[in-house]
């Protein structure tokens, strides 16, 4: 998968006598980049030459190249005078800035100067040293020793425990340098303490190869070259040196920012090199499939609605909008009073998905929450598939085709597509493969501390994407661990200690980061302790049938076997289940296959719920979910969703089977049946039958595009801002009926109005009653319950004085500014009821009936 770009020939303007590399080789080339160094160079050149002349045994033949990087002082003249006394000194200069620039040239940067010097060198070994000789030239002997011992490069280190710092930097510069080194270790070169010390010795041929492929022109060149050596497997030794800070450093404060930009460029290039053309084609296919599924939303962004999402699209767009409102307004992102006034909503206790809503706040502010909704769903599905593809290629299979199919099933399986209608917290799961990979690293026990820290950060971020999805993933991982331990007990015991240590580190990272958010979630305003939803297990028939959104699905059949169209959590179809059973039997000797088969089976059985109805018999059996139904955290889980933990197991099993089929094919151009596998001599008939079975299992469950419709138009009373004349600041707008999980269109009104007014009622999770049990939607008051009943039945109730008094109290409680009734089925009954409750007729303004109530009744 590693592809390197062709070497870019450097733009050289070489001074006199610049022989081509490799001709007339010498023992050592010393390269000194120089920019306005007329005062330091005489001493530096004299010191280096005297040292090299004094060690003829080691440096019988040598050269010293000074690269004048566009100096505006007499640097070039100083070098020419030195070259008259010592012919082995050479001067190189970069090209002129322009044809009219005369002999002067602009400063290109340290990286450009070093590349110029190294590519012009002839040395079997090449030393790079700064013009200030902050590291004395005598330290070269230590670097030679490491190359003699087999290293390809030896780099001076000021951060090594045995390094001697004779004159230290200013504390601020020292702090910035340490922070930069930490960033470099985290992003590019883990394990290297000091990449920026300007004293490095390289094997000459390898240095010229690495610099020839380099691209950076600034201070980041050191990182780029060391990364190239590591990528090629050329050993690099970090050597402690003496070092003394020299006044007149050319590093300026802005250079730290430029180094950061170069690191980002380097990281981007590294990703492109690691992802070959075939991999990019797979990722593009995932993205195109995702765009195809959401083509209805993309056709008119922000003006189309997912038909099967119920009221969830309104809710999610409101979450994105309110998060952007709070973040850009520097308000608390964990709580808002814009819904459920005057009590508010605990956003941390809801599925606000702050991990995406916060970084996408600028997108929401510029293009609207509908754009964020469309972007999150589309890129989320594609990103989840890409993450699983990456994990499969890295950990499980060799064949690209196998990983592509496995990744597609993990992200686009029927349960995932069902939630992709309305629940991005269950469809956008790109962090799960990263978490699994880090857990597997911990089991290997190589860098337990570092991997534990990264795992802790990953888990923290996933909490802000979706906690219930993380809980279900943890359940699946526990099932896998149990199955694998039963299959390979010795290996499981060996992995237990580093895994436990790494998990302890991860917890130590998570606790301080999540302490406040979780305390707010479970103990803050409008927190609750569980959510009531009643028994919600899968029907056994749901596993062998096809989802309504699948190619072979029938909507009525699926609707009869699921809570709703966003909770079709099984529906794998009998061909995929049959194929999975065959794969488990076929690859039974692989302990991973046994463990994955156990995960799929156990998760499916658990998802049946507290009771298991036996189809067509009327018999009901107790389900294993009973053991978890009332446990903390699990009490709020809709048990049918546990089947989602089987999806990755099925995807990995499919990838393993396809990898075996690819491996049985004749080797391709790069060694595999599909271009990336290896042959094991399997028969052609087996391959044909195998691929036919895979096609028969996947084609019926292929997803079809989501159905969309035009949104209900927002009344002009809201859309054109007329509401401002009727809802004073600090007052609420009361839609009729009040927004609820069954009708949350008023949330769309609110986002259209730029969240300019609060709403009573709403669609959220909050507490109910003295025990603070979680419910969907607000606590009903007399008026909200009465209006909801009128909307449902279309009948006007008899209104007495006590009802009017209760309505007046409710409006005062909600701090109502205006009551608004939009055209809807049964609106005549609602209008008459409001007139009798309030005692006067409403005004028809901007397409709605309006009752101003902020002045009292």
Automatic annotation (TrEMBL):
Pfam families: Glycos_transf_2
Compartments, as annotated in UniProt: Endoplasmic reticulum membrane
Keyword Protease among UniProt keywords: no
Record pathway: Protein modification; protein glycosylation
Residues passing through the membrane, by range: 281-298, 347-367, 373-391, 403-422, 469-487, 499-519, 571-588, 595-616
KW Transmembrane helix (keyword) present: yes
Membrane protein topology class: Single-pass membrane protein
InterPro entries referenced in this protein's UniProt entry, alphabetically: DPG_synthase, Glyco_trans_2-like, Nucleotide-diphossugar_trans
Main location as per UniProt: endoplasmic reticulum
SUPFAM superfamilies: Nucleotide-diphospho-sugar transferases
Keywords, alphabetical: Endoplasmic reticulum, Glycosyltransferase, Membrane, Signal-anchor, Transferase, Transmembrane, Transmembrane helix
E.C. numbers: 2.4.1.117
Enzyme class: transferase
UniProt similarity note: Belongs to the glycosyltransferase 2 family.
Name this protein carries in UniProt: dolichyl-phosphate beta-glucosyltransferase
The species this protein was found in: Streptomyces cuspidosporus
């Amino acid at each position: 998968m590693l592809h390197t770009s062709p070497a870019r020939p450097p733009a050289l303007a070489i001074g006199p006598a610049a022989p081509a590399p490799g001709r007339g080789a010498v023992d050592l080339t010393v390269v000194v980049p120089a920019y306005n160094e007329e005062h330091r160079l005489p001493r530096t050149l004299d010191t280096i030459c005297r040292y090299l002349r004094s060690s003829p045994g080691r440096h019988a033949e040598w050269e010293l190249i000074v690269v004048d990087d566009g100096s505006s002082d007499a640097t070039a003249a100083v070098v020419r005078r030195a070259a008259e006394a010592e012919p082995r000194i050479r001067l190189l200069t970069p090209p002129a800035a322009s044809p009219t620039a005369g002999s002067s040239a602009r400063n290109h940067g340290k990286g450009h100067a070093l590349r110029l010097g190294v590519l012009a060198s002839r040395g079997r070994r090449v030393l790079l040293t700064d013009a200030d000789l902050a590291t004395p030239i005598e330290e070269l002997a230590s670097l030679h020793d490491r190359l003699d011992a087999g290293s390809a490069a030896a780099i001076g280190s000021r951060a090594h425990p045995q390094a001697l710092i004779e004159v230290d930097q200013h504390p601020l510069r020292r702090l910035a340098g340490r922070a930069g080194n930490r960033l470099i270790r985290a992003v590019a070169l883990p394990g290297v303490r000091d990449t920026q010390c300007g004293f490095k010795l390289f094997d000459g041929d390898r240095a010229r190869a690495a610099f020839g492929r380099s691209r950076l022109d600034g201070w980041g060149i050191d990182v780029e070259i060391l990364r190239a050596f590591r990528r090629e497997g050329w050993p690099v030794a970090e050597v402690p040196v003496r070092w003394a800070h020299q006044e007149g450093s050319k590093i300026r404060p802005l250079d730290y920012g430029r180094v950061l930009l170069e690191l980002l460029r380097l990281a981007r290039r590294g990703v492109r090199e690691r992802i070959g053309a075939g991999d990019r084609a797979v990722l593009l296919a995932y993205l195109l499939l995702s765009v195809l599924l959401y083509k209805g939303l993309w056709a008119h962004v922000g003006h189309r609605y997912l038909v099967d999402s119920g009221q969830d699209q309104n809710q999610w767009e409101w979450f994105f909008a309110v998060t952007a409102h709070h973040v850009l307004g520097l308000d608390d992102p964990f709580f808002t009073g814009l819904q459920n006034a005057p009590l508010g909503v605990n956003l941390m206790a809801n599925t606000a998905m702050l991990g995406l809503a916060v970084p996408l706040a600028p997108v929401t502010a510029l293009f609207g929450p509908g754009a964020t909704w469309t972007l999150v769903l589309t890129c989320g599905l594609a990103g989840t598939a890409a993450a699983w593809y990456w994990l499969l290629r890295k950990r499980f299979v060799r064949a690209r085709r196998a990983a592509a199919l496995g990744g597609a099933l993990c992200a686009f399986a029927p349960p995932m597509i069902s939630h992709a209608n309305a629940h991005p917290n269950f469809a956008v799961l790109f962090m799960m493969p990263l978490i699994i990979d880090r857990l597997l690293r911990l089991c290997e026990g190589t860098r337990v501390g570092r991997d534990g820290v990264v795992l802790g950060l990953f888990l923290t971020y996933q909490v802000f994407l979706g906690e219930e999805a993380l809980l279900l993933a943890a359940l699946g991982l526990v099932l896998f661990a149990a199955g694998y331990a039963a299959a390979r007990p010795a290996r499981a015991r060996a992995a237990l200690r580093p895994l436990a240590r790494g998990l302890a580190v991860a917890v130590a990272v998570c606790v301080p980061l999540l302490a406040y958010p979780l305390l707010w979630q479970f103990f803050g305003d409008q927190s609750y302790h569980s959510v009531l939803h009643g028994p919600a297990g899968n029907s056994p028939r749901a596993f062998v049938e096809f989802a309504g959104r699948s190619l072979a699905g029938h909507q009525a059949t699926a609707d009869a076997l699921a809570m709703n169209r966003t909770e079709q959590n099984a529906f794998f179809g009998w061909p995929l289940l049959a194929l999975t059973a065959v794969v488990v039997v076929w690859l039974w000797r692989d302990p991973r296959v046994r463990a994955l088969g156990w995960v799929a089976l156990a998760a499916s059985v658990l998802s049946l719920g507290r009771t298991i109805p036996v189809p067509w018999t009327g018999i009901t059996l107790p389900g294993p979910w009973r053991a978890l139904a009332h446990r903390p955290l699990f009490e709020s889980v809709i048990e049918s969703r546990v089947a989602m933990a089987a999806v990755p197991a099925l995807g990995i099993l499919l990838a393993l089977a396809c990898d075996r089929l690819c491996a049985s094919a004749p080797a391709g151009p790069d060694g595999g049946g599909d271009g990336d596998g290896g042959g094991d001599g399997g028969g052609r008939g087996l391959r044909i039958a195998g691929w036919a079975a895979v096609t028969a299992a996947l084609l019926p469950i292929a997803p079809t595009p989501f159905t969309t419709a035009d949104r209900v138009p927002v009344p002009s009373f809201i859309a054109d801002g007329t509401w401002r004349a009727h809802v004073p600041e600090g007052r609420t707008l009361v839609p009729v009926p009040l927004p609820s999980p069954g009708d949350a269109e008023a949330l769309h009104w609110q986002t259209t109005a730029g969240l300019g007014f609060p709403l009573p009622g709403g669609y959220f999770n909050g507490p109910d009653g003295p025990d603070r049990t979680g419910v969907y939607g607000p606590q009903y008051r007399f008026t909200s319950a009465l209006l909801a009943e009128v909307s449902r039945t279309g009948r006007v109730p008899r209104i007495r004085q006590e009802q009017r008094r209760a309505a007046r109290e409710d409006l005062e409680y909600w701090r109502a500014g205006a009551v608004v009734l939009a055209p809807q089925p049964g609106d005549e009954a609602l209008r008459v009821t409001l007139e009798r409750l309030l005692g006067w007729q409403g005004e028809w303004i901007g397409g709605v009936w309006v009752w101003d109530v902020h002045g009292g009744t």
